[in-house]
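Full entry
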Amino acid sequence: MYIDSHCHINFPELAARMPEILARMAENKVTHALCVSVDLPDFPGVLALAEQYPHIYASVGVHPDYEDTPEPTVEQLVEMANHPKIVAIGETGLDYYRLEGDLEWQRERFRTHIRASRATRKPLIIHTRAASADTIRILQEEGAGVEQGGVAGVMHCFTESLEVAQAAIEMGFYISFSGIVTFRSAKDLQAVAKALPLDRILIETDSPYLAPVPYRGKMNEPGFVPHVAEFLATLKDVPLREVADRTTENFHTLFNVPKD
């Protein structure tokens, strides 16, 4: 059994094919998926999916790439997270790759999410790109790590160095690998994945983006997440069942999702 720990099946290109998406999940033994929020205006659609389908869960948050969108407050995030199907805060974080200029607003938004996580005791879903030093620094300053009384969370769609992964793990975070790890060009990331212990790893699609080999270049969906697990099993030279079981257990532990 597999779990897609990060997807965007509320996006129009996937939502229009929901029966097919759900059928392929079942066919490929993907038992759960976490539909991740990227802004507040679209949050009702994310929550609606989680309410409609027992095996779909959701988060609430505003992505760091969304500049022209309503800014969340701690109070708003806490209130919106007060629902049994909302299991995380985010995605949140920093992205210095796509945006330039004065990004202090992005850092303040990140701090808001961390404070909401601490208030709700729900884990963070972290997006970081070309901003790992500031990401780790702000997490530490805001007490996001387990040892500081925070709830920690997951570094999603991880593409950073082993040092960044280890710093996150020391704070209690998990590291999630997407289809990127299957790409032929991702040798550095594959070395990171090989070095990390299975008890700190999650798998995801980040669909509709980043489809794994052999679907690279096509629209991604949760039913493709087993290919990430298969690649990791080969990379780490362990049985596929071990990767599937361990990443599933990690998901249930981190997001406090009951086992069926």
Remarks:
- The first strand starts at residue 2 and ends at 7.
